Amino acid sequence: MEDLPFANEDASPGESAERIYVFANGPTGIDHPFRQGVNSALSDGRGPLNILGGIPTINLDYSPLWRLFPAKWTDEAINKGYRTRMTDAIHIEDAAAKGLIRSLDDGPLRAVGFIVNCPVVYRVN
Fold first, then answer.
1. What is the pTM of this model?
2. pLDDT in tens, 82-92
3. What are the sequence ranges of the domains in the chain?
4. 80 DSSP 8-state letter
5. Kind of pairing, strands 18-23 and 101-102?
6. Which helix (H) or strand (E) holds 91?
7. How far is CA 53 from the centre of its chain?
8. 3-state SS string over the chain?
9. Above 70 in pLDDT, residue 122?
10. Which of 34, 63, 100, 115 could pair with 85 in a Cys bridge, judged by C-beta atoms 3.0 to 4.6 Å apart?
11. Residue 123: its pLDDT value, please?
């Protein structure tokens, strides 16, 4: 993996890794219809519902390697009731451009240089 070229700022066709957004402070509660994020996963034992930047079979340049974009809702977004379940990378980037979502250090939403090797697998019953 050390020989693979990784872009930390932008994902373009043919990149070695795609984006994965991981929320720290999404809505919580097993019965909450918009639950999402690490806090929710730790408190209710369900998955964090991370958001993938590219989906196998839809993106022709799919890669099982993911550039980690840790994200959090701002206090302003939470106080105004904007915090919800996010399902699309474009909507996340749009909310980040509006200042509603930031990186964990309160900086702009960005990759942190951590690569996850995690192929998407679908189980057929």
1. 0.85
2. 999 999 999 99
3. 18-117
4. T
5. unpaired
6. helix 89-97
7. 8
8. CCCCCCCCCCCCCCCCCEEEEEECCCCCCCCCCCCCCHHHHHHHCCCCCCEECCCCCCCCCCCCEEEEEEEEECHHHHHCCCCCCCCCHHHHHHHHHCCCEECCCCCCCCCCCCEEECCCCCCCC
9. no
10. 34
11. 61
